[in-house]
Amino acid sequence: MPDRQTFYVTTSIAYTNAPPHLGHALECIQADVLARHAHQQGKRVWFLTGTDEHGAKVVEAARKAGQAPQAFVDVLTDRFRALKPAFNLANDDFIRTTDRDRHWPGAVKLWQQLELAGDLSKASYRGLYCLGHEAFLTEKELDSEGRCPIHKTKPEPVEEENYFFRLSKYAPELRRRIEVDELRIVPETRKHEMLAFIDEGLKDVSFSRPAEVLDWGIPVPGDETQTMYVWCDALTNYISAIGYANETEQFRTFWPAHVHLVGKDIVRFHAIVWPAMLLAAKLELPRQIFVHGFITMDGEKMSKSLGNVVDPFQLAATFGTDPVRYYLLREIPSSEDGDFSKRRFLERYNADLAKGLGNVVSRILTVAAKEPALVGVPPTPATLSALAGVHREYSGCIERFELHQALGVVWRFMGECDETIERERIWDLKTRDSERFQAVMIQLLAGLAKVGQMLWPFMPDTAEVILAFLGGLKRDWAKDGFEPKPPKQLFPRLIAPADALGVKADRRKPESPSDAPH
Ligand code: MSP
C-alpha cells in the first residue's frame, strides 16, 4: 500500500523580542486552515511553528528589560505558545531555536554540509548592520537620511571577521527552479520580485558574527570564536524540528515541506538564502512559499510607539476565537495587505456571522427539528453532486491560497440556501405540499452539513456546533441522513458603544423581522 499523501506546512518563527501581535496570529491561522484542509482531504499532516530566539535584536530587548537573554526568551516563548489555545491552532509541534537537543544538532549538521560543499569561507567585512532586519543593508537600500526605510533607524557600521556563504554560486540554479515553479512562489508578483532580485546579481552573505560581539546563538562548529548568523540558525528550524540531524523516519516522510508561510518582509531569506543552503547540502527544496501581506491598524502600521498594537489575546477573549479567525481570513485578502479596524470587525461580525450564518442555521433547523419524518433520510445523488461542485470550487481557492475567496464561496452558497428558504417558504410548505417539503428540507440540511464541513478549517468550533445540530460530527450524513436538533444562537449581535472593544452582546430578541428565524 502506498503511503498516504503527506502535507508539511510551516510558519516563520517569530523573534522573541516582543509579545505576539495580530500579524503573528494571522500567519498561524492561515497555516492552520491549510493544515486542517489537508487533514480533511485525508493527508498525513505536519504543522510546525515556533520561535526564533537568538541574535542581536533579542539580546538588545533583554538588556532593555534588565534580564538575562535566556530568562527573557523563556517568558516570551510562553506567550507565543499561548497562541495555540487562544486561536485553536492544530499545530503538531513548536520548535525553539534555543533548544539544544532538538534544534542545535540540525543547525550544526547543516553548517557542516555547507562547509563540505566548500561554500563557507572566512573574510573580514565592513558593512551596515540593521538590528531590526538582523541583516546587513547596502547604502542603496537606505533612505536619504541614511536610515533603514522600514525600521527608521540608522544601521550600525560594523567591521569584523565573518564566515561567508557563497550564495552567488547558486544564482543560476535558483533562478531556474523559481522560473519553472519547481520552487513555487505565491503570489506571482513575489515570484517576479525574486527573479528580478537574482538578476541584479546575488552577493555572498555573512553567515556568522564574532562571539566577542555576539555570543547569544549557536557556536560555529569547529570555531568557537564565531556565532552562527541568526538567519542561518533560524532557517534550519524547518528541518531540525523533524529530525534532520539523525535522518529520522519523520524527516524522510515530511521533507520537503509542501509550503512555508512567510510575510512579505522575509521573502528573500526564504526564496533565495534558504533554498541555496539546501542546494549546497544536497537536500530537496520546499515545494512552495506562500507570502502574505501585512496587517495595519485603522490604516496605520502597527507599532508600539503609535500605541496601536492590537493584542490578539485580548481580541479573542473579547469576541471569541472563531469571529477573530473569520475576520482575519475573510477581510484580509490572503496575499495582500489588509486592515484591522474595530468598526469593520463589528460590521463583519453582525452582517456575516450573527445575521448571515446565524440566520441560515437557525431558519433551517428551527423548521427541521420539529419533523421526525426527516430523520435518517439521505440526500439525493443530484444534491450530493451539486454539493461536490461547490466543494471543488472552495478547495480550488484554498489550493491557490486564496482563503478569503474560499470563504466567499461558502457565503455565496449560504445565500443560495437562503433564497431557497424564501422561495419555498419552508415555514408553511408542509401544509401546502408535504412531499416537496420533505425534498426541500433534506436538500437544505445537506447544504448546511456542507457549510459545516467547509467551515471547519476556518472556524473549527462553530463548524463542530453546526454538525452537532445535524446529528453529530462523525455522522456519515451523505449515507445516513440527519437527526436535526433545535438550534441555539451561534453569534449574539454586538452593539457598539463609543469604545468598540467594550462592546456588549445584545441578547435581546432580534428587532427587525428579517433577523427573525421563521
Ligand atoms: N524571526 C524572523 C523569521 C525567521 S523564519 C526562519 C522574523 N520574525 S518576526 O517576528 O519579525 O516576524 C514573524 C512573521 O510575522 C513574519 O512572517 C513577518 O512577516 C510577520 N509579520 C510581522 N509584522 C506583520 C504584520 N503587521 N502583519 C502581518 N504579518 C506580519 O521575521
What does this structure look like?
Helix 6 (171-179) packs antiparallel against helix 7 and helix 15 (381-399) packs parallel to helix 18 (434-455). The protein starts with 5 loop residues before the first strand and ends in a 12-residue tail after the last strand. Residues 502-518 have low confidence and may be disordered. It is 46% helix and 16% strand. Strand 18 (493-495) and strand 19 (504-506) form a beta hairpin. The chain has helices spanning 22-40, 56-64, 69-81, 83-87, 104-116, 171-179, 188-199, 230-235, 237-240, 249-254, 267-280, 312-319, 321-330, 342-368, 381-399, 403-424, 426-432, 434-455, 460-469, 477-480, and strands at 6-11, 14-15, 44-52, 93-96, 120-130, 135-137, 156-165, 184-186, 205-206, 208-210, 219-220, 223-228, 259-263, 288-292, 295-297, 300-301, 338-340, 493-495, 504-506. The chain is α/β, with parallel strands linked by helices and 518 residues long. It contains 20 helices and 19 strands. Strands 1, 2, 3, 4, 8, 13 and 14 form a seven-stranded parallel sheet that branches. The structure holds 5'-O-[(L-methionyl)-sulphamoyl]adenosine (MSP). 5'-O-[(L-methionyl)-sulphamoyl]adenosine binds next to strand 2, helix 1, helix 8 and strand 13.
